Every structure is written in structure tokens, then in C-alpha cells.
Amino acid sequence: MGEVRVMVGVRALNSNGHPGEKVEALADTGATLTLLPAEILRQAGVKPDGRVSVQLADGKTVERESGHAWVSVDGRDTACRLLFGTREDASLLGLTVLEQLGLAVDPVQRRLVPSAFKLL
User: Fold this and answer.
1) Structural domain boundaries, residue 34
2) CB within 8 A of 116, min separation 6: which ones?
3) Which residue from 43, 76, 95, 105 could staple onto 101, CB 3.0 to 4.6 Å apart?
């Protein structure tokens, strides 16, 4: 089994025609929220609107800025809360966005697949 990496599009909620930015991210079902590089988010016009304490995979607790944006993966879009990552942080596509998009991780085929439930 291996990692599943995907291209993630991100743009501000009020993008005013801005096409947004793209970044490769690890689809991580162990991460609740999506975390993308702060530089990419700012280039996409996403503004921080809060701070969140999160626990990293190594058990360390850190604070990160949070904001709201449109996220797109495989032609599917959703508005979501996400985290502004630092240079040390990996880009992660978290479980909340995967569920909102109706996608699941297939670790054997190393890809995203439609989840078992249907979006209304």
C-alpha cells in the first residue's frame, strides 16, 4: 500500500474571477482538516480568519492560522475550512474535505474513488 497524492485547487470564497492556485497534497484520512502552504493560500486570495490548535502526527500540538476557501479535487468543488501551513508542514488533503467531496482513499490502487455514500 502506498501514499495517495492528488492535485488540489484552491481559491478564495469571493474569488472575483481569480482562477486560484494548485498544489499537490497527500490524501490523509488521519488528518481532520486540510492543510496547504500559507504562500499558496495567500496567492489564491484566501485570508486567515482565525487560529486553531492542532495535534500533529508526532503528537506535538501547534497553532496554525485557519481560513475558508473553495477546494477542488478531480473536478469536484466544496467550500471548507482549512489551515495555513508553514514551510515545515506537508500539504494534506484532510478527511473532512474528502467526505464533503464524496471521495475515499484507495490505498492499494493509490487513488481517490467515489465513496460509498451518495451526495444529494
Assistant:
1) 5-114
2) 104
3) 76
